[in-house]
Design a protein that fits this description.
By secondary structure, this protein is mainly α. It has three helices and no strands. The protein has one domain. 80% of the residues lie in helices and 0% in strands. Helix 1 packs across helix 2 and helix 1 packs antiparallel against helix 3. The longest helix is centred in the N-terminal third of the chain and has 29 residues. It is elongated, with a radius of gyration of 16 Å. It starts with a helix and ends with a helix. The mean pLDDT is 93.
Length: 93
C-alpha cells in the first residue's frame, strides 16, 4: 500500500470520527436548551463546540467527554491530510 493512500485513509477515518463527534455534541447542547441548526453545521460548528465546552464546564467543572476526542480527531485529520499532500508533492519526479 502506498504511503500516500495510507495517510489519506487515516485522514478520512478521522474526519468521519470528527463528524460523528460533532453531531453528538450538537445533540448534547440541544438537550441543554441551546438552539441548533443541523443544516448549518458546517458553518456554525465552532460556535456549537464552544457552547458544548461552556455548558459542560458549568455542569462538571471541566469540558465534556466529547470535547477532547473532537480536538484530537480534527487535528489528526489535518495532520494526515497534510502528510498525504506533502508526500504527493515530494515524490513527484
Amino acid at each position: 500500500m502506498d504511503v500516500t493512500i495510507f495517510f489519506a485513509i487515516v485522514a478520512g477515518v478521522l474526519i468521519a470520527a470528527n463528524l460523528y463527534l460533532s453531531i453528538r455534541m450538537m445533540h448534547e447542547i440541544q438537550k441543554r436548551g441551546y438552539k441548533v441548526n443541523f443544516l448549518l453545521m458546517r458553518i456554525m460548528i465552532f460556535k456549537y463546540i464552544s457552547q458544548y465546552k461552556e455548558a459542560t464546564t458549568k455542569e462538571t467543572g471541566e469540558p465534556g467527554p466529547l470535547y477532547r476526542p473532537w480536538i484530537i480527531t480534527i487535528n489528526g485529520a489535518l495532520l494526515f491530510a497534510l502528510l498525504a499532500v506533502l508526500n504527493i508533492l515530494l515524490t513527484q519526479s
